[in-house]
């Protein structure tokens, strides 16, 4: 049983955006799959959770980005669990080159949700228990995103392709929607340096997700809603790209 998960792979054409950098949403999918694979390896697989009606969901996630890996680059993703906080499961991530250059550090808080009631599930009921690992390189856990005044509005209809195994818009798809709202011109001129996202409520297929966003003190602030219901909050730092 490995207490630290590690996987190596090459960045493929389908993983990158028009700038040939790893898509933010693909990074989120990678950390999600790493968490699932490692949790199963640690003895808390689908026989204890999914098959009994308990779903793993991300509550909050924070990341610091030195740079995103590029097309055809080989990277190593490491992940490990932190000390469980009653019903919350911290998890940490590091994405690095094979030579050891740290590219992205991230931390997240996960929890279990009852598939039928869509409410928090107690891990003790399912026999879910994960070991605590500390490396000393952990990015502090996300603390929640404050809602700011927003100006511009972007509407994203939630389609079949957005919805995952849990029956709601996948956590990574929010980042695709945010980047669509910011637009190609902004993202071509500015690179992502850090972000935090807080998931407040799920969005089902067929709903209209409205993303209100604005820039304040050098940061992008976004709020996603369906009607008056807040679904997620997102804040991120960007810096002007250096000319190559």
Please give a handful of descriptors for the protein shown.
244 residues, Thiol Ester Dehydrase, Chain A, 2 domains, 11-stranded antiparallel β-sheet, 4 helices, 16% helix
Number of DSSP strand runs: 11
In the CATH classification, which architecture of the largest domain applies?
A: Roll
Shape: globular
Strand proportion, as a percent range, falls in: 35-45%
Indicate the percent of residues in helices.
10-25%
Biggest β-sheet, characterized? 11 strands, antiparallel
Number of domains: 2
Q: In a nutshell, what does this entry contain?
A:
The protein is an alpha+beta fold. The chain has helices at 24-41, 123-126, 171-182, 184-189, and strands spanning 5-10, 54-65, 74-81, 89-97, 102-114, 120-121, 152-157, 190-199, 208-216, 219-226, 229-240. It folds into two domains: 5-126, Thiol Ester Dehydrase, Chain A (Roll), CATH 3.10.129; 152-240, Thiol Ester Dehydrase, Chain A.
